[in-house]
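Hi! If you just cloned this repository, the fastest way to understand the data is to look at a raw example. We've pasted two of them here, unedited. The first protein comes first, obviously.
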Amino acid sequence: MIFVNPIFTTLLNETEFDIEHIYIGSFYKNLSHIKTSEKEVVLERTPFLFNDRSNYILLNDNDETLINSIKSLKYNYKVLSVKVTKTNLSKEELKDTFRLINLKNKSRRDLVNNIKNLIIHENHALNYLCESKQKQLGYINKNFLNQKFSSQTLSRINKDIDLDLCKKIIAERDLFEIEESNLKVTLQKVKENNRKLFLYEIILNSIDLKISSIYDINLICDYIIKNNFTKSFHHSLMKDLFSKLSEKLKSPPPTKPLFQTISKTEDKKNKEIDNYNFFIDTWSKTNDKEKPEIVDYFLEKMRAFNE
């Protein structure tokens, strides 16, 4: 089956379909006990079905027009349906794909909340198409909504998504007690300095550190802002150091002494090299065999801060 949007053909390239008339009560149980009719009907929208252990699952059950059309029926009719006959996707992956497909049918009032839910609650299809949480909103707007939202609206919605994702990861990892007002201040500071920065991704890339409060997150953000670390390359360098320190310690290293050590190292080197940055000028140029020496040096200096 070829979809109008080629992206869905890509998502479902190993999924095969068959068109069949199926009793509506087979996949919409509320109508399974009413009087059966042999009459065949076509609904306003076509039901897409997945046979899960002899139970039909309605894949596009978030299509309100379809559901209202089903509810208007007074008999258990046979309905023209599209049935999945073969797929490499799970039931949830298929449903997530149809949640994306149905975005174009949402009213503007419901659209924003639906998009937020897709991004925050890990839609499988969306994550496959666009891995970066920061870029998912723009990806949806360009590829599925024909640029419905202006850049100002995208910025506002993305800020809300960033805040919700931050609250989610802090709660899931049990990092510290969330005070939303403080988190909003940090988020605002990040956005005002550089709109390209996404606070959620900063926290995610720092997950190998011991983060005990919002002040630890502020330390990391201040360093990133000061050095204009906006590229994924910059964040991968930081993440690599955090990971190697954590491996060596067998536990997450504390954030404050680590950044004190980095700052002191950079202050010392700046007397010899203008605008020296540890991650760019040393860590990125050090091969994997030599990195353990730097890790040991950092751990020794961090212990000195704690004494």
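Ok, and the second one:
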Amino acid sequence: MSLMSKGFLWLLLGLNIILIGFLISMNNMAAMWMMAIIMLLDSIGSLFAVYRR
């Protein structure tokens, strides 16, 4: 995770803040989709960082 770009990590932080907003507003379906997108981006970014070494 330490080799990921700062911009990508800021993007993930922003998406997590949006996710918290969806949870507060009780929009569960949008929150579930947002969580799936965040997890997918995180796994792709981790794979990219591992293979970039």
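That's it. A detail worth noticing about the second one: The chain has one domain: 6-52.
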